[in-house]
Design a protein that fits this description.
Shape: globular
Number of strands: 8
Largest sheet: 2 strands, antiparallel
Mean pLDDT: 90
Helix content: 40-55%
Structural class: mainly alpha
Number of helices: 20
Order of helices and strands: HHHHHHHHHHHHEEHEHHEEEHHHHEEH
């Protein structure tokens, strides 16, 4: 516990403008001691997951807040919310907010690099395959986090010039902020690809491929013996081998190489564990939705656990006066509630519900667990996205499987036929995908990146708005630009 507290203290120490990479000498000494044992490496990596699960990143800001306002999914109720909806990145309020997101990402990367800088020389302290697991996860996370930064702060993919400056790609620990300089797009993309490739090799024996969910998610004496190490539990909340492959799929989609992306997506869809030869991930169905599991845990390829969700999500953002909401009629339009009456997500007020207290609003319920608690596991990559990727590559049969799982009316929806309306099949697929991305990932932060990847010039919902290219690209923080 003391070591975990140290990690959090280190994160807090990295927050000033010009010296946010300046690790204090006394912390460096304690860090060296942490790397003397396998447990120290485990604790450093766990600290990164804790940071990612915090409200400053995927526990709120980069899942249900920032990208969802940029996608126009919420109504604006505070000054910051209205500025994000208007793509006003110049005000002091929005600039400070975006800089805090930037710093949170790089603070996580600093700690990954600290781990990676020591792990090879300490390989002999590891047991039970943990050298490969820990190094593989760290490399995969480094690639994932840099790619997330690029998706926010980089150009629309169609406008990328390989030789232009993009973002910093940090691969070493440094106390000199002048070394945090932006690389070219090509260099960043090459580094992402290399880290993912190395992670894929290291995670070839990931326990998620060998054991069932019953074993991996239920610590106990019998399962402890099977796994041989408690560190191997809860692989869906770690950057596992399937998360690596899913990130490969996202990477190639971003670059417009849909066939290669679909190949990786199919590997995830078809992934089975060897214990019972059962699928590792399964589409969520009525059984999940009927008990309120609208984040579809069976689909979560990679998620984080926000242990403070009830205080940082539910009470502040989904119930009281600053709640993230959307107009009821607009939501009904988005979810085609008159056409798809059996949609498992929206029937019986599952995903949205108009409540009169404390204020009459249409409240969003994806992260509601009970009337007084919030869901702690926040999905970052889900199986549905892999289905959408292969669908964009023309696999309408798998898309039908997704739609059946969601309870959509197959007979009424005839958009995916090759006749009528003068559109190609691919155009019809993309029209349908735009709607399904919104429905399935509402509150999860994926819609904005769908728009950006495809360069939408206007958003069709909740109202038609013109989307300028500069609105897609977050401004590099002023403190960072000083060192360019």
């Amino acid at each position: 516990m003391k070591k975990i507290i140290y990690i959090i203290a280190l994160f807090l120490a990295l927050t000033s403008c010009n010296d946010w990479l300046d690790i204090q000498p006394e912390l460096e000494i304690r860090e060296e001691k942490m790397f003397e044992t396998e447990q120290g490496f485990k604790d450093i990596l766990t600290g990164v997951y804790i940071k990612m699960a915090s409200p400053s990143l995927y526990g709120r800001t980069t899942s249900m807040q920032l990208p969802e306002f940029l996608a126009q999914h919420w109504e604006g109720r505070t000054d910051l919310q209205k500025q994000l909806l208007d793509y006003d990145f110049t005000s002091t309020l929005s600039r400070n907010f975006l800089e805090s997101v930037w710093l949170s990402y790089y603070q996580s990367i600093v700690n990954l690099n600290s781990l990676l800088s020591k792990i090879d020389e300490k390989e002999d302290v590891f047991t039970n395959g943990n050298y490969e697991l820990i190094k593989g996860e760290a490399l995969g996370l480094r690639a994932f986090l840099h790619f997330e930064i690029l998706r926010y702060w980089g150009d629309v993919p169609a406008d990328i010039v390989p030789g232009n400056k993009a973002i910093p790609y940090m691969k070493e620990v440094t106390k000199d902020p002048n070394l945090l300089v932006s690389l070219t797009y090509q260099e960043v993309l090459d580094n992402v690809l290399q880290d993912l490739t190395d992670a894929e090799t290291l995670l070839a024996e990931d326990p998620i491929l060998s054991f069932s969910k019953d074993v991996l998610n239920e610590p106990g004496s019998e399962n402890d013996l099977l796994l041989g190490d408690n560190f191997h539990y809860y692989r869906q909340q770690r950057f596992n081998i399937c998360a690596v492959k899913a990130t490969f799929a996202r990477y190639y989609m971003w670059l417009g190489d849909v066939p290669t992306a679909a190949t990786y997506a199919m590997e995830v869809i078809n992934a089975t564990e060897s214990e019972n030869n059962e699928p590792i991930f399964e589409l969520g169905t009525e059984n999940d939705a009927s008990i309120g599991e609208l984040t579809f845990p069976s689909e979560q390829i990679f998620s984080v656990n926000n242990s403070s969700a009830t205080s940082t999500l539910y009470n502040v953002f989904f119930y009281y006066y600053s709640a993230y909401t959307q107009d009821e009629l607009i939501v009904r339009e988005a979810f085609e509630s008159d056409t798809h009456t059996s949609d498992i997500r929206i029937k019986e007020d599952r995903l949205w519900e108009v409540k009169t207290q404390p204020e009459e609003l249409n409240y969003f319920k994806k992260y509601w667990k009970t009337e007084t608690t919030a869901v702690e596991d926040v999905p970052i990559i889900r199986l549905a996205e892999m289905y959408f990727i292969v669908t964009e590559n023309g696999n309408t049969e798998l898309f039908r499987n997704y739609r059946v799982a969601r309870g959509l009316d197959i007979l009424i929806d005839t958009e995916l036929t090759e006749t009528g309306e003068g559109m190609s099949l691919q155009e019809k697929i993309m029209m349908r995908l735009e709607k399904e991305y919104r429905k399935d990932f509402y509150g999860e932060g994926q819609m904005f990146f769908f728009y950006k990847r495809l360069g939408y010039q206007e958003f069709p919902w909740p109202t038609i708005i013109e989307m300028k290219k500069e609105n897609y690209k977050l401004p590099i923080p002023e403190t960072q630009s000083l060192f360019e």
